[in-house]
Amino acid sequence: MQHSFEYARAFRNLRLFNQFVKERYDYILNLENGELHKAIGGSVFGSHNLLFANLGRFVGLFNLHRFPIHLNFDGKLIPIFDAATGSLAMYPMNKCRHCFPNLK
Prior knowledge:
The protein is α+β, with helices and mostly antiparallel strands. Helices cover about 20% and strands about 25% of the residues. It has one helix and six strands; from the N terminus they run αββββββ.
């Protein structure tokens, strides 16, 4: 029974991740811990466990202009605009070490 739940979650997350990519989001942000992951050029597979995360609680992000969000230092507050609600929130940068292994 536990295995079928894990497979269902994995397939759901694969579908959600592919939807983020299809919609051309540059990144996905875990709202629970503020961790930033690659969408374009990224994967649900690997050491960051996106395959079994709750991707339904993640939001897709676009780069603004030509400045990639991931070039900010960890801890820097980045503004996130929610187009659905019209609200703005500040999240401290927290890059996934699997997605951005050479950036701190």
